[in-house]
């Protein structure tokens, strides 16, 4: 089956063709006709099976281009997925006139979001918390909504957003179309489907993702602010002919290419803003060894087949396992050996496990090349260039100069050669063994413990109902539970929202986890008072994140978070007490950007 056979409009067919899609995936082939016909859809499919195209393409086909109010609302569990989905909509709609898509998530300036909402967008993609904030403020109107999509519904359940999702869905017009996608179907998700979907046929797709065995797959665990140094070290220490570096955004292709170019690499970027002539010129330069490194987005690299590429670096981890397979497939082609390296931050461990599960292959952790390895590589490379120059170049003019200088300078040939070598290597010094800063591990926990915990909690398990911290916080109050001490440096903080505002522990966890990018395992005991609450958080929250948390709203109340100087107090009727099931060390000292 082709996309044309799915009866999509010509503008969308042209876009997907240029994006390199040849045939629809199973979930797309099953869901697109139903959504085109205006039916509701309940899809069960793993991440990486093409779900975004399955709902974006048919809903775009039903869009009214003359109406600038929100017609499609997509709810996603994280800001990363919201951005990814918004970018996919933009790519599919590139030939649709006057089309606008707007991602809404925490950590963004409200001012910018309000300006964009006033300008108008047909498609809104957002996280439940920020969407609910705009609905409460009256800045987002859904009265003309035609369709709502729940993407990765089980993840929203796991993260404690399911009540926000219910509230949002209740605020949408009764006649809107509903598409709901989830990797698993816990009873809470089925309950939502039964309430909001009309005569929806369930579509269940099994992932068949696999990777080429000739590709060596490894990952590096590091904090996000270490990526550029890690990339430089990797490119210095690995043997490769040519490399392609994958990032998520067009702007990142230009930024990383510029920084690598400043460090002496022959590099160019490849993104969706480039016209076909520039794209072909860049690929031709790569094939002709005029450049050695390409920094690209997934869309721009589709169909790229250059024999020289022997190293693929996933600078940004993909959210889609199919995208991962496409990425690393740029190397190891036609039986050739290739290498693929994946950069993973601590909060992206779940994505790593999802990719491993989908590809049915383990990805081994690696250590970055040491300063000694890089020094030896530089010396070897310089020696090879020197040998080629001696063999292939006419050096008579320079030999005469050396003979003349050795007499005038009163220095031996060895001294002169050493001085010239010193001058020649100043841009890329050979003596660097002790000058490369060691990149620290982001967490002290052993990989075995981490892998075991994540494997046990992998969200694709369906043999038993999922039970997570978000669900536990939604249970009726059972009184105080035995306190379990948090490890590491933690403080007790006061927030100005309490039981009289209708807040629950899950609301607080969701807001802090998403607005401050603090993993839920680092959110400790929560106690709810009548007009305020207390929560245990790491003591080393970065100043800019702490200031941002002060302005976050929960249940229409600003948190106004402060350090609690009366932490010894206890509520007369404690409720919502929460503790992590896996208390661990405090997060790394490096600040992380807020996410939603």
From TrEMBL:
Basic and acidic residues biased stretches: 437-488
CDD domains: DEADc, RRM_EcCsdA_like, SF2_C_DEAD
BP GO terms, sorted: cellular response to cold; ribosomal large subunit assembly; RNA catabolic process
A GO-annotated cellular component: ribosome
Subcellular location: Cytoplasm
Span(s) of short sequence motif Q motif: 1-29
GO molecular function, one term: ATP binding
InterPro entries per the UniProt record, alphabetical: CsdA_RRM, DbpA/CsdA_RNA-bd_dom, DEAD/DEAH_box_helicase_dom, DEAD/DEAH_RhlB, DEAD_box_RNA_helicases, DeaD_dimer, DEAD_helicase_DeaD, Helicase_ATP-bd
Keyword presence, Secreted: no
Residues in Helicase ATP-binding domain copies: 32-203
Domain (DEAD-box RNA helicase Q) ranges: 1-29
EC number(s) from the headed UniProt entry: 3.6.4.13
Residue ranges of domain Helicase C-terminal in the record: 227-374
Top EC class, one word: hydrolase
PROSITE patterns: DEAD_ATP_HELICASE, HELICASE_ATP_BIND_1, HELICASE_CTER, Q_MOTIF
A Pfam family hit: Helicase_C
Organism domain of life: Bacteria
Catalytic activity: ATP + H2O = ADP + phosphate + H(+)
Ranges annotated as biased composition (Polar residues): 562-573
Record's keyword terms, sorted: ATP-binding, Cytoplasm, Helicase, Hydrolase, Nucleotide-binding, RNA-binding, Stress response
Stated family: Belongs to the DEAD box helicase family. DeaD/CsdA subfamily.
Role description: DEAD-box RNA helicase involved in various cellular processes at low temperature, including ribosome biogenesis, mRNA degradation and translation initiation.
Name assigned to this protein: ATP-dependent RNA helicase DeaD
Gene field: deaD
